[in-house]
Structure formats: structure tokens, C-alpha cells
Write a structure and sequence with these properties.
Strand order of the largest sheet: 19-18-17-16-24-23-22-21-20
Structural class: alpha+beta
Strand content: 25-35%
CATH architecture of the largest domain: 3-Layer(aba) Sandwich
Length: 510
């Protein structure tokens, strides 16, 4: 995109951000745009601390959550560059603090690549006992006065996988905790110290840390959530597994990281990784369906109007973050808020789209001139659920209550959950004139692609997705085996039982 066009887009950012902040009642928001190694736009909006009336600035420190995973991966890949391991080596041969193993001693080993692509078979929780602590940030949070156990103690010597590696994609914070431990065990240096010396400071990031240290403490924002009585500060929680999401940083600092991601791992301060390694990390290493975005090594992959995108988001109590880079276009976008709200990702996506000069009609739905195919809907409608695995299906339970139903709503194909925020349904719109099984929905202004897959007999048997909800691989179920049907049967049985009891009581009274 021409420089003048980029300047024109940058002139629109304030209006876009203010409209979004007003729509979502955000406490504060910081936005940055990096182009050709320079931070060409950086601005803060709202308040970092409402009580102190401290404004958000480009130097305000946010908790960037799971964007931290990309840093952990880069530190690990530095060790790969040194020949310390191979991507398909079993990690059990390198971990000393604890092991990552399946209960079956004959199970295939978990490799570095499995952990980097969330395909190791690790679930959302360490074990079933974590469910009791679920409300505390997915059982990953610790209060300020609580000691954080060392990984050896936290995992009690073993992180047990629920499934064989490679069987299923399942977002795994604990997998990246293992990667952080691998950085420590292979390098022989404490993880947090290693990150400062080998990633942050080589890139000039002197006010970024995995710990709430003097490097970041003074500019740290307060996290908020919107309740019925307004914005309320959230309780501060430490992250028990820091390599998965504990970084504290600002737009000014993260712009240095983005500049390096856009320039083969090097910025004006120095280098963190070799260009060939970074390129490999941003290539697909996991693809659920060729029609869907894939996953690199820690980085999520996508495209906007044909422009290659690598990205990652993050969320922690009171904070949400988004980072998008377009490597071939030398453009990067950052958006951080100190409010529990998904707004940064739609902002970053919309801004990147405009900077790339991609018109709305090429990516928005419904697409102009796209003919729907209602004659195929009977094949597509029905219930879809994941393969077995309670821990590895946790996010599917959170988003779809364990099962998705494709149905007709207002003369449109739609998808809905049994309960929860998606129970009213999302409309599915066709996106490819040559593929009647490719669709897109929108949730919170985020595009979510869905594709149906046929089996060898030509029957629709799977529904796949990749996007804000992660990778979904759902299999069609007969109605009689669906959770919805079983729930109705159970409720009918309960109603019959209650009616019977009430009837007996009435008879006795007579």
C-alpha cells in the first residue's frame, strides 16, 4: 500500500478507537502501528488507573497474556538453532523438572513440535481437581499473597496427557509451561532470566518482563471488568505458569518486537532469531483443513484479502491484547486494553485490513452476488460434536456447551450451541462460489470460517473451523445420540417423575 494511503488510514485510527471504546465501555486502550521498522502510530486512550486518573499512554504497561507464548517459542528456537534438539525429538529426553507422558507406556512420545502446535494431547487442566479452581482464571491464577510453586511441584513430577499426541488440536497453556521448562532445562538458566538476556534486551526491550518487577511496575495499568454498576477493578492474580502468558509490556516496547518479526528477527537494537528460523515458525505446521487457516510454531496463521498474516492474542483477568503482523507487507498492529473485553482483536483486524487496502466486500459477509444453496441444507443440518476427551474438549464446552447444531433460522443456515452466548445462533454465509461447503460466521465482529467435509461415501460427516474459538473438529451425530436429545429425554423423564410424585400425593390426600 502506498505511503500516502497508509497515512490516510492512520488519520482514521482515533475515530475507530473512540467509537469502539464507547461501544464497549473500555477503561483504557493503547494502539500501535509498525511499518518498515518504525512505530508510525502510537496512542493511548482512556485511563490506566481510574482511581488515580492516570491516562493510558504508549508507555502504559499491560498484561499481554498469551502473546507471551510467541516469546517462549522464540527462546526455544534459539536453542534449536544451536543444535540442542530437533523438533521431532521426544521432550521427555530433555525435561528434568517434570515429564510429559501419557498413562499408556506404549503411547507415542510428545515432541517439541506437538507442544508448539497444541497437538500434544494436553488438556485445559492438569487434572480433574483443577475444576474446583476453574473460576480463578482457568485454574491458572494465584492471589498476590500465595506462593507460586516451582513447576516440579506444580506438576508433581508429571504432566499427564489425555490423548495420544497428534490425535487432536487442543489449546494447551500447560504445553507452553512445558516449553518454558525446556528452555530452562536445556539452557541451564532460570527461565525469566534467560528471556531477559536472550530475547528482551537483544531487541532493546528493557521495560518488558515475565515478572511484575521494577522494569514494569511503575507504568502498570489496573485491570477492570464492566459490571452492572460500572467498571470495577479486578483482583490482581499472578499466573502460575509464566511461560504461557505472564509478560508485562507496552505498545512502545512491543513495537520493537513487531519490528523484529517483520525483519527476519532483527530490529535496530539487535537480533533474537535467524530469518530462516522465523520464516519456518510462520509456516503451517498444523492444518485441520486446507480451506482453513493453519498454525505455525506458536503463531496463528491467516490471510486478509490474500495478504499473509501471523498473529496471536491474549487475555488475563482485566486485560485483553492483540498482535497482528503482515510479514510480506512490513506492517504490524498492536491493540491492548485493561478491560475484560474482546474489543482489541476486532480493532486490530479492522485496522490491518484498512492498512492493507483490502475492501470490506472481499472479506465481509454476506458476499455480494453469492448465491445460497438451500438444496444442500438438509445434508448439513444436524448435531456435531468432538472426539472424546473431557480435558481436551474444555474450550468446546465453554463455547458450544459440548455440541454444535446446524439448523435453519430466518431462511438462513445457522449454527448454535446448546446453551450459553451462542445458543441464539450465528448465521452461516457462503464465501466461495466454487465450494458449497465453505461458510463464514461473525461473532463479536470477528470472522469465523466453517467448512463441512464429506467422507469417502460422499456423506457430510465433519464440521471444521479455525479462528477466534481455536480449531474445531466436530463430527456429525445421529439425533438420538446428541446431547440436545439426551437432555430433552432427561428433562422429560424428570418431568414425568415429578408429575408422578405430585399425582401420588394428590391421591393420598383424597
Amino acid at each position: 500500500m502506498a505511503e500516502t494511503a497508509i497515512e490516510n488510514v492512520l488519520g482514521q485510527v482515533d475515530d475507530l478507537v473512540i467509537a469502539t471504546m464507547n461501544e464497549h465501555a473500555l477503561a483504557g486502550l493503547a494502539v500501535g502501528v509498525v511499518h518498515r521498522g518504525e512505530l508510525v502510530y502510537a496512542k493511548g486512550f482512556g485511563l490506566a488507573d481510574a482511581k488515580e486518573e492516570r491516562p493510558v499512554t504508549p508507555d502504559t504497561v499491560f498484561r499481554i497474556g498469551s502473546i507471551s507464548k510467541t516469546f517462549t517459542a522464540i527462546a526455544l528456537m534459539q536453542l534449536w538453532e544451536q543444535g540442542k534438539f530437533q523438533l521431532d525429538d521426544p521432550v521427555k529426553d530433555y525435561l528434568t523438572a517434570f515429564k510429559v507422558l501419557h498413562r499408556d507406556p506404549n503411547a507415542p512420545p510428545v515432541t517439541f513440535r506437538h507442544l508448539l502446535t497444541h497437538t500434544a494431547g494436553i488438556g485445559e487442566f492438569r487434572d480433574i481437581t483443577d475444576l474446583a479452581r476453574f473460576r480463578r482464571a482457568f485454574a491458572l491464577g494465584a492471589k498476590e499473597d500465595e506462593p507460586i510453586p516451582a513447576p516440579r511441584e506444580y506438576y508433581r513430577g508429571r504432566l499427564t496427557t489425555e490423548l495420544y499426541p497428534g490425535q487432536k488440536w487442543a489449546y494447551a497453556n500447560h504445553g507452553f509451561a512445558a516449553l518454558g521448562q525446556l528452555v530452562e532445562d536445556i539452557s541451564g538458566e532460570p527461565f525469566e532470566e534467560h528471556m531477559i538476556g536472550h530475547v528482551f534486551e537483544p531487541l532493546g526491550m528493557y521495560r518488558t518482563d515475565f515478572l511484575r518487577s521494577e522494569r514494569v511496575r511503575d507504568e502498570l495499568a489496573v485491570g477492570y471488568q464492566l459490571k452492572k454498576n460500572g467498571l470495577t477493578p479486578v483482583d490482581y492474580l499472578e499466573i502460575t505458569i509464566r511461560p504461557a502468558g505472564s509478560i508485562f509490556s507496552s505498545v512502545t516496547e512491543m513495537a520493537k518486537y513487531v519490528a523484529a518479526l517483520l525483519n527476519g528477527g532483527r530490529n535496530e537494537h539487535g537480533s533474537a532469531i535467524q530469518p530462516e528460523t522465523l520464516h519456518m515458525m510462520m509456516e503451517p505446521h498444523y492444518v485441520l483443513d486446507e480451506r482453513l487457516p493453519g498454525m505455525g510454531l506458536a503463531f496463528w496463521l491467516d490471510s486478509i484479502g490474500g495478504h499473509r498474516i501471523a498473529h496471536h492474542g491474549g487475555g488475563w483477568a482485566g486485560f485483553v491484547s492483540a498482535m497482528l503482523v503482515a510479514p510480506d507487507d512490513d506492517l504490524g498492529v498492536l491493540a491492548f486494553t485493561n478491560t475484560s473485553n474482546l474489543a482489541p482483536y476486532p480493532i486490530a483486524l479492522s485496522l490491518m485490513q484498512r492498512l492493507l487496502g483490502v475492501p470490506d466486500e472481499t472479506i465481509a459477509v454476506p458476499r455480494p452476488g453469492m448465491l445460497e444453496t438451500p438444496h444442500l441444507w438438509p445434508e448439513l443440518c444436524g448435531f456435531y460434536g468432538p472426539k472424546p476427551g473431557f480435558m481436551t474438549n474444555a474450550r468446546i464446552w465453554m463455547s458450544f456447551a459440548g455440541e454444535a447444531e446446524v439448523f435453519i433460522k430466518d431462511n438462513r443456515l445457522a449454527i448454535r450451541a446448546l446453551v450459553g452466548p451462542l445458543r441464539k445462533g450465528l448465521t452461516l454465509y457462503r464465501t466461495d462460489a466454487d465450494d458449497p461447503l465453505a461458510f463464514q460466521a461473525e461473532y463479536e465482529k470477528l470472522p469465523i470460517p466453517f467448512v463441512f467435509r464429506r467422507n469417502e461415501d460422499g456423506q457430510v460427516e465433519r464440521l471444521c473451523s479455525a479462528g477466534a474459538m481455536g480449531f474445531l473438529d466436530l463430527y456429525k451425530r445421529p439425533k438420538g445420540e446428541s446431547l440436545s436429545f439426551r437432555a430433552r429425554v432427561a428433562l422429560s423423564g424428570l418431568a414425568a417423575l415429578v408429575a408422578g410424585v405430585l399425582g401420588l400425593r394428590l391421591l393420598r390426600k383424597r
